[in-house]
Amino acid sequence: MVLKNKKGLEMSFQWIFSIIVGISVLFLAIYAASMFFDLGIFQHSTESAARISVLLDPLETSYDYSDNKLSFATEARLYNSCSNDGYFGTQDFQVQEKTFGSKWGKMSDKVSVRNKYVFSNSLEQGKIFYVSGISFSYPFKVTDLIILHTRPYCFEGTDDDIRNSLALLDESKFNVRFENCSNDKNYVQVCSGSSGCDVNIVGDETGGYVEKDNKRLYYANRLIYAAIFSDSDVYECQIARIAKKIANLCKVYEQKTEFTSLRVSECSTDINIKLAALRTTALAVSQSSDVSNDFITELSEPVSEVFQMNDEMSMCKVWEESGYV
Predict the structure, then answer these.
(1) 300 Cβ neighbours under 8 A, 6+ residues apart
(2) Rounded to whole angstroms, how far apart are CA atoms 154 and 138?
(3) Edge-to-edge strand order for the sheet containing 69-83?
(4) Residue 169, burial from CB neighbour count under 10 angstroms (0-12, 13-18, 19+)
(5) What's the pLDDT score for residue 5?
(6) How far apart are CA 92 and CA 109, in angstroms?
(7) If DSSP codes are grouped into helix, strand and coil, which group holds residue 71?
(8) How far is it, in rounded angstroms, from Cα 25 to Cα 44?
(9) What is the mean pLDDT of residues 170-177?
(10) Domain boundaries, given as residue ranges, for the chain
């Protein structure tokens, strides 16, 4: 009887030991699978951020980029941050995608770029991201303003002149509406000279400021697009980076003018005085504490002078654009 009990006890211990070992193995397997899954999500999100950083070239990404759209299979968050440090400053992207249910996956690594100027909110969230590029010259071609957003925009409350100046906003490509949308709570309401709207434009098509989140984003010409669709942190930093790029381009054009004058005796370097003045002012503006305001007020005159002087040059034009926008 005693031996039987010992045997039963021995069997019970073997079963308990087997169960403990099985649970441990199962736990380790689940943990390893979880780590592998999180690593896969992290890698995928980082790849997504990298693809966005090359600005969604259809040859470089597996995402749908037709009709100015970037589509994700699941809901995604795009974090857009900006730094004005260095020669041109940098723009950083991070992506976070939903996994199962309402759980968000691990944040991707930062992917930094120096040659893109993407205007959006610091955080954009959705499955479809609308992206469009708008050429910006001041006074020469500076860059493309890349507009990115997820929420629809309603321009029913804007003045006719402002609406006409926003002719590049194709309704289907930009996810915007101009009529019968003011009562839709899903839309970002854009008005002119009014209170109570999400975005309020004070000024005209040539310049002014955009009020949003109790802050003023100053614009000139096509910068109105960037001011409407981005928040203040992104906008101010990107304007500082654009000011730096203007300064660097002035230096390039100064060198080009000197080289041209050596080869063609009829060409002078008189415009270099204006380019140098614009370069100095742009560098100062890039470090200003009130960047967008100073960008408009301080650069307007030197930009106009450089443009006019180049426009009056016949065979020795520094650049071949007919206007600046």
Answers:
(1) 207, 220
(2) 28
(3) 111-113, 90-97, 69-83, 123-137, 141-149, 118-119
(4) buried
(5) 55
(6) 10
(7) strand
(8) 28
(9) 82
(10) 1-116, 237-312
User: What is the distance, to the nearest Å, from the Cα of residue 164 to the centroid of all Cα atoms in its chain?
Assistant: 24
| Nearest residue to 201 via CA among 186, 178, 219 | 219
Give the three-state DSSP class for 169.
coil
**Cα 159 to Cα 188: distance, rounded to the nearest angstrom:** 16
Closest by CA position to 124, among listed 61, 211, 213, 52:
52
CB count within 10 Å of CB 47 equals 15
What is the reported pTM? 0.81
Please identify which residue in the block is written with the tokens 């736990």.
27
Q: Token pair for residue 166?
A: 């926003």
Q: Left if phi > 0, otherwise alpha if psi is -120 to 50, otherwise beta: which for 248?
A: alpha
- Nearest CA among 178, 204, 174 for reference residue 192: 204
Residue 46 has pLDDT above 80, yes or no: no
Nearest one of 98, 103, 95, 112 to 46, comparing CA atoms: 95
CA 23 to chain CA centroid, Å, is 48
Per the model's pLDDT, the better-predicted residue between 10 and 120 turns out to be 120
- Tokens coding 64: 């749908």
